[in-house]
Amino acid sequence: MNKINLTGMPDKPYxxxxxxxxxxxxxxxxxxxxxxxxxxxxxRNSGLFDVLIPAYEKSTRYDIKVEVIAVGTGKAIRLAxxxxxxxxxxxxxxxxxxxVTEGYGVNRRPVMHNEFVIAGxxxxxxxxxxxxxxxxxxxxxxxxxxxxVSRGDDSGTNxxxxxxxxxxxINPKGKGWYFETGDKMGDTLLVAGRKQAYTLVxxxxxxxxxxxxxxKALFKGDPKLKNHYxxxxxxxxxxxxxxxxxAMDFIAFVTSxxxxxxxxxxxxxxxxxxxxxxxxxxxxxxxxxxxxI
Length: 293
Prior knowledge:
By secondary structure, this protein is α/β, with parallel strands linked by helices. It has twelve helices and twelve strands.
């Protein structure tokens, strides 16, 4: 079998153990090496990294310690553009593709998806449950002047929210019912709960924080609310000092059947928080299982 070239990954699902057997060892230092991953707060708030990262550190042949910088996608990309991260794990396809096209990143790979939901008080004063789509739900919130809490932090979630407001033909900035936290997804959700307000939240964070707030997932299912996560290695041509081999090794793990299986089996309150994208057959099986339940 041919050795794997670390400038690219195989196009078909590839066992991580097989990858390790057939990877040329470029002599990564034997002492513990730091791998800096700039990621979204939603992945950390979901609890997924508490499962995924220890499994990777145990599986890799390298003595790697993953350090996560959990910020909004916009800030994560800005850090990577300065060479302050080795790897991105984010959820803004447009900005990810731009990051690669501009030469800052290489080997962008889809990893998983879930969806955003519009969460709010159980009595749903704006009537969002009956909306035909996400934009109509936002219109109802604006018309009723119901409080809405935004992350306001240039994150992938914030950009998605602003896209929906634009679809609704509404600029919420400066309105008395619109609040911005500038904070992480979990903290923003808790603020919305205290204010009995609406917010846009990914299902991973929502279900992980569900026991800490009385907000309900009121509207979901619009294709506009699909939430895709990808990994991207920072281009070593621009930043020779980054841990490129470690980044490529992590990408190999998280997109392998082993890594994808961990994602497929990550459950909170009996609900799958993410569906794997690198091995599509796993997502198909998982969704089929849900239909049978």
